[in-house]
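Changelog note: in this version the structure field was regenerated for every chain. One regenerated record is shown below for reference.
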Amino acid sequence: MIRIASIAALVLLAPLASANAAAVVGKPAPAFQLTDMNGEKVRLDSFKGKYVVLEWVNFQCPFVGKHYGGQNMQALQKRYTEKGVVWLTICSSAPGKQGHVTGSEAKEAVDERDAAPSRFLLDPKGVVGRAYGAKTTPHMFVIDPKGRLVYNGAIDDRPTSRREDLRGARNYLAAALDASMAGRKVEVAATQPYGCSVKY
């Protein structure tokens, strides 16, 4: 039982040092170009001058299910895109692996959940996921208008898959966005992401 719990912890909780190895807070965010669910090319640098959120997703992951099933992720997407933030949801699950979606499947999943990202991006080869060191779903990043990373880590401080834990959770993503957009220092700029491992 102890061994199983230890293995689960290794899968679900990514070490902080590893999570920050590729995309470092305070440094320029790695550039990328991906195809979205509509077949259109999307370049990160086309959003320079705006805040950008990167959200790694796998709709079959129970941790992602917690945030979408409880309407938490959709509420965040709507709140911040209404403020001009660009929200990019990225799926890095490889073909044949859990969570992999085609463009049409991504559209269906987004519609079913009433999700509201600015774009849903497909990263089936995991190139962008690895460039950022994305370890879990969800794994969240915030990029400021100058193209610098200002947050890397968990969405909140409740590393569970239980919807009831959304109530009272400290939302690191919202805190980072609110502080940075108000011209204040982000107090917690890097945290340990939690969730299912990204299925590269």
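Spot check on this record: Helices lie at 2-12, 16-19, 62-69, 72-81, 103-113, 127-132, 172-181. The CA atoms of residues 28 and 187 lie 19 Å apart.
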